[in-house]
Structure formats: structure tokens, C-alpha cells
Amino acid sequence: MPVEESVRVRVPAKINVSLAVGPTRADGYHDLATVFQAVSLYDELTATWAPAGEVSVTTIGPFADHVRDDEDNLACRAARLLMDRYSEGAAWGADLLVDKAIPVAGGMAGGSADAAAALLACAALWDLDVSPAELRTLGAELGADVPFALLGGAAVGTNRGDELVPVLGRGCFHWVLALSEVGLSTPEVFARHDELVGTPVTPRIRDELMAALGSGDPEQLAASLRNDLTDAACALQPGLVDTLELGRRHGALAGLLSGSGPTCAFLAAGESAAMELARNLRAELGADAVRRVRGPVPGAKLVQVVR
Ligand code: C5P
Q1: Can you give the pTM of this predicted structure?
Q2: Inter-residue contact 284 to 23 (CB < 8 Å)
Q3: Whose CA is nearest to atom 15 of ligand 1?
């Protein structure tokens, strides 16, 4: 008999306050030097006990239409991976319900967040003795951003972006996100980046960025934001140039493409500046396309256990 009937996990989206892209590796991935920041836009995943060997997923929320609820769903694959590695014949199963608020194909690690949530939720549902570090190692098999969705906060990511070192910073940064109706494929953005760049250099993180995160000063951080994928994403979705400009025109300290895009993240001077910026962007882009968030926030977290 199960100890827990259902378990609910909340998991944040991420932005990359710096994303330096290096050469392509033998496995097709790129060497990265990035700084992740988890932000307060969350998916919630509820895992409920199901008959032995069964794993299913149902997605709800505004982006549900863009997600396939089948075996290839990253949350499903995460639950299966955990079952394969740890069950040793035990009679486990899980129905996963994902309430999705993180945009799909938006450059905010929405799929990876759900994989991270599924790992944590199923580990609790099945009462596994698995450490956070072990979960992150499993997560890296599912996608380069999964370990960070588990860790949260702010972290330097190297290798594929999956080797993490937490960044101890001060304060809280206020962002406004502009979502795009049409997503971008991450592999396509990386491929276009390779075409545009020619000979890549070893990626590194600038000292000024680390100092800015340490200080908690948004003006300093604004001057250090960087995303090497910006030109490639703008080449694939030219409207992004206008969106980035729009945020700056409405008082953002700086605009930044989030990951491989197309979500744009605008850094505000503080909470009230972010509220005003969000109001202005809603008037231009529509309420559905704008979110106000803060970061850093913790990674995937158990929020409810029903016994
Ligand atoms: O690991 P994940 O499945 O999230 O990565 C999606 C795609 O993004 C990869 O298949 C690859 O094309 C690209 N990528 C990359 N280098 C990285 C991370 C992702 O080329 N470090």
C-alpha cells in the first residue's frame, strides 16, 4: 500500500542572466557558460498513485494545447526513468497532472521544469531514499536545464549548462516578461547561432556580472546582461527586435532574450518600476502576453502531500 496518495510540487521557470555559447561538442550539445536565475513563474505538478507500471500525464492551463500528453512528454519520461532505476520490481505507478503556467518553447525551461517536478514528486510518492544530488544527476539525463530546475536560486552552469555551482547573491530582482504566441525550437536557435558565429570562442562569465549579482544592484546587473543566442533568435523571429526595444522604451533598465527565446525579460529598477512597466507592456501587447516576476526563487519544492 502507498504511504502517500498524492504529492504536489511547485517548480519555477528560469532566465539566463548571462548565456555565453562556445563550440559544438561531439554529442551535439554546445559548451556553455551561463548564469541561471529561477523566477517566480511556476508550473505545478501533482503525482497520484496509479496501478503498477502505469505512468500517464495530463496537462492543463493556458499552454496545455501546446503540450503532448504522451509517453514522450518530459514529465512522463522523468517518472519512467526514476521507476527504471529505483523500483527493483516494486509495484509503482503515477498519474501526473501538470498545471502549466511556464510558456512552452519559450526559452524558460518549461519542459525541463516539469521533468524536475516529476522526479521530485515521484521520489516522494514512492518514498524513495534518493538525495537531491542523485536527482540532479538523473535530471541531467533528461535535459541540460533539469538540474537547475531542481536546484533553483541562482547558479553558474558550465559544460552543457548542467554542471552547477550556486551563486550567493543579495536581494531580489524584478523582471517583466513578454511572452510570444509562437515558440522557438531550441536546436534551431543553436544551429542558426553556429551559422552566424563561424568560429566560437571558449565561453566565460564576466567578473562584473558576478559582482552585480553579489551587490543586488539592478543597475549594475542591467549593464552585465548578455545572451549570445539573441542574434540567432531575432533572425528566426524578427519581431523580437521590436519587442526588446519596446521594453526599453517603456523604462526597463535592460532587455534580455530568455534562453533560446522567444520570451523577452526586462529588468526593472524595483517593484514599483516593474508594475508600471508591466502596465505599459500590457497596453501594447495584451494582458496574456505579460508576466511580472521576481528572482531568484527556490527550485522545485514539495507543496502538498495527501496521505
Ligand atoms: O537538453 P535539452 O533537451 O533541453 O536541449 C535541447 C536542445 O538544445 C539540444 O538538443 C541542443 O540542440 C540544444 N542545446 C545545445 N547545447 C546545450 C544545451 C542545449 O546545443 N548546452
Answers
A1: 0.96
A2: no
A3: 29
